[in-house]
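User: My instructor asked us to take a sequence, write out its structure as tokens, and then describe one feature of it. I'm not sure where to start. Here is the sequence I was given:
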Amino acid sequence: MPTDMLTTEELLHETPEALGKEESVQGSHTLTPELLRKMNAYWRAANYVSVGQIYLYENPLLKEPLKLEHVKPLVVSHWGTTPGQNFIYVHLNRAIRKYDLNMFYIAGPGHGGPAIVGNVYLEGTWSEVYPNVTQDEAGLKELFKQFSFPGGISSHVAPTTPGSIHEGGELGYSLSHAFGAAFDNPDLIVACVIGDGEAETASLATSWHSNKFLDPKTDGAVLPILHLNGYKISNPTVLSRIEHEELDQFLRGCGWTPYFVEGDQPEKMHQLMAATLDTAIEDIHRIQSNARSNNDTTRPRWPMIVLKSPKGWTGPKIVDGQQIEGTFRAHQVPLLVDPQHPDHVKLLENWMKSYKAEELFDENGRLIQELADLAPQGTRRMGANPHANGGILLHDLRMPDFHDHAVKLTSPGAVQVEDTLVLGSFLRDVARLNQDKRNFRVFGPDETVSNLLQAVFEVTNRQWDAREFGNDEFLAPAGRVLDSMLSENQCEGWLEGYLLTGRHGLFNSYEAFIRIIDSMFSQHAKWLKVCRELPWRRDISSLNYLLASHVWQQDHNGFTHQDPGFLDHVINKKADIVRCYLPADANCLLSVFDHCLRSRNYVNVVVAGKHALPQWLTMDQAVVHCTEGVGIWQWASNDQDSEPDVVMACCGDTPTLEILAAVSILREHLPNLKIRVINVVDLMKLQPSTEHPHGLTELAYDSLFTKDKHIIFGFHGYPWLIHRLTYARTNRNLHVRGYKEEGTITTPFDMRVQNDLDRFHLVQDVVDRVPHLGSRGDYLKQQMQDKLIEHKHYIDAHGQDMPEIRNWKWTGAQ
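Assistant: Let's start with the prediction itself. The structure tokens for your sequence are:
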């Protein structure tokens, strides 16, 4: 045996001729000898195409001896997971044809791009979407060259891959995306391949429990396929090194019925996989039929498959004296082919020739017809399934008139209302109007009631398919709310899968803990960015976040619950993707959320409070103000007939309250001081129009904020974010007050005092900035300092804010 490369027969373990023999695999003869031969040939074709993508940009069919110049100068990819995924894909194709399944494929293992791209090409979908990649030798050359190559496609499954809703770069979200896709799609089966390295991530480890939230009557099914090939980049995987019994018990303990397909001999593995897959599909159909025909709401134990196959199956066995196949060395590029390893050119050629491409492709480079016929047709092809391009299936929501939920207002600040409580009744009506369409859901980690959105439970329940007790609330096998799992990761993944397959929804969360899904948001934003560049990708509904229980309403929970930094993270993404809204009151919140639920291809972040605060604008005023995104509140300003002495700006409900309270003090004690009050709803308005499509032009910004007057800006989040957004503006006299990492369990007003966002500090700031106030300013500043001391003594003695703070109301001009 050569020490550098085994023979073709040893690579494949069985010759094509041997695959024609009947042999019982655990009593199974699922595949006829002829079908077995064809499926193995199709698998060889997929493996050949995968290796070609990794290595070649010339000589795709090896019609001439392979040379170093035929190989890409930089070979970057992952081979280890690829042959196993090719194996799975060909078997799913057979199941789709046999059972006429509506199915698509989620590839969880990172960088498994060669497999999925290759299979989408072999089934014909890639050439339909990208006509320049034709079904012939020239197309193969283009397919190979574009992979992981400048100007081409990435090495993992990405938005550029037809049939994909899942970015394979960051691991852990495949199963939650699969469940999100299956919700409200009763005829859909999502085949979700999970890498055993991926299975070690926190998100994936938690998502095994998603089966407690799938209703067999009204939802589709998820078929997890745990790809147990033993290794990560340089380490073994945990699930591959525990005993078979322990793995079986773990999966059963998570509520699954696992079926194991284990081995490395193609004939036996094909027969076993075919029989096992048939069993799993028939289990799914039986479960669904029982639930739908017999109204059986008992939570089923859904099937799943564990595929245990060698890492880098059918690839190089031994290279330069080191074992490759079946080890971590097969994870990425198993064979270095470059000027430093010239002898490896022949090894690569032998490897590729072991698949016998001349038996798989005709002389023009097209997959031979008997193999092409194995793939499903039309939209039954997994690469062409419309659910994987969800905009095709997207229908507008039926929307209630948000004006019907308006807070009635006779004058600014006349009433106090919990903003999210008002929004809850609006969302209730959204859910009610779309019940029959089953295309809208509310997601959140056990916080729907806490965030005062409980009105939705007047028309729907929480979806919950586990056991129920008599004192539970709002639990049912089917519902429009998914908030019974205390995992931000699962809620995010479910919602993304739901949106990517053509539906609508929102995620409500405590502001501080939305940070748990920072990276998931980033991946989705990147996905949307790339999709915008692909004309064949249809627009999907926006990813909408409602961040309540925010930093200024965590006086009872303390420092750990205080973090407004998600806004800072979000604005790092492309300006044509992200939107951030901070409505000052309930009517503004209604107007903003109506807009967000109607929008497409954005990430909308809305920050709103759940504690009772003064209401400022009538609904008509709110609609105008939110449409503009930023504006002068004339009723609070007194500079109409002259230049302002100072600009008082605010963004967010609590900063708005404190800015207006400070303005009322200033106008009472310094009646000649000319003050302009500006409120910002759309945070992105502060950026220049050259940086963000919502941004103000220089002329518009200067008209509002002036070119040289001092701006005292009360902001909801970290002060430096405002400086960052406005750094290029003409007016440099910007002084921002916001959250500066000060907080504990204290009173609401004391939270603002600790961060210098309170009215007393704001008044002092104005006095310091406006030079002509003289002694009247000095005395007012001293009064404010006295008030701060009085406040501290009062809360220490009484445990609540002073009556003048708790009972303060805006009274207009003094």
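For the description part of your assignment, you could build on this observation: The radius of gyration is 31 Å. Try explaining in your own words what that tells you about the chain.
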